[in-house]
Amino acid sequence: MKVIWTDAVAWVAIVVVALLLALATPRSTGVLGRLPVEVGLGLDQRQEMVGALDGRVLAVVTFHKDQRAVAEGWVQGLGLHKNPSLPWLRMPVLNDPKDEAERAAAQERLLARYQAEHERAKLMPVFTDRAAFVRAAGAAGVHEVIVLVVNRNGEVLARVVGSFDENKASIVRDTLLMDL
């Protein structure tokens, strides 16, 4: 003969084990990827470490020159030029030619494209393996503009892909402005 309360005890034991396992499972930190620690040289000739900037920064990442219009859509849509309090960078990711002369030529092309001092101050080209950068950032590929919110440790806290729209912009703004 089966005692009625054994089913209840077994059920409670299963619930307790499930709760203990849930509590023992590591929590997600909200990190979607981590930028590789690469040295970038801003076109205003300041040396910076990607991911070592104070606080959070918004990075508009491009991989090909034909993505400039989409990137500019993000800059205009978020009003980045109008709001100097928002920390942001335009980050073209270029395949590293591993040759100083070729790297200097690429920087000269960027200097020709971004002639205003305020544009150069916000520009940080990254010379690296594009595919490795994409993987580290947790993105899918180089075929679209990626907008990231990155903390001082290079951790990607928010990521949206493609053209500007208000829903994506809301995600980026909320993460960028969220209290630490």
Structural account:
The protein has helices spanning about 5-25, 70-75, 100-115, 115-120, 130-135, 165-175; strands at about 35, 40, 45-50, 55-60, 90-95, 125-130, 145-150, 155-160. The protein is α/β, with parallel strands linked by helices and about 180 residues long. It is elongated and about 85 Å long. The N and C termini lie far apart (about 60 Å).
**Structural class by secondary-structure content:** alpha/beta
Helix percentage range: 25-40%
Distance between the termini: 60 Å
- Which strands sit side by side, in order, in the main sheet? 1-8-7-4-5-6
Number of strands: 8
Rounded mean pLDDT score: 80
Uncertain residue segments: 22-29, 49-53
User: Hey, roughly how much beta strand do the residues contain?
Assistant: 15-25%
Q: Helix segment count?
A: 6
> Sheet bearing the most strands, described?
6 strands, mixed
Order of SSEs: HEEEEHEHHEHEEH
- The outline comes out as elongated
Radius of gyration computed on alpha carbons: 22 Å
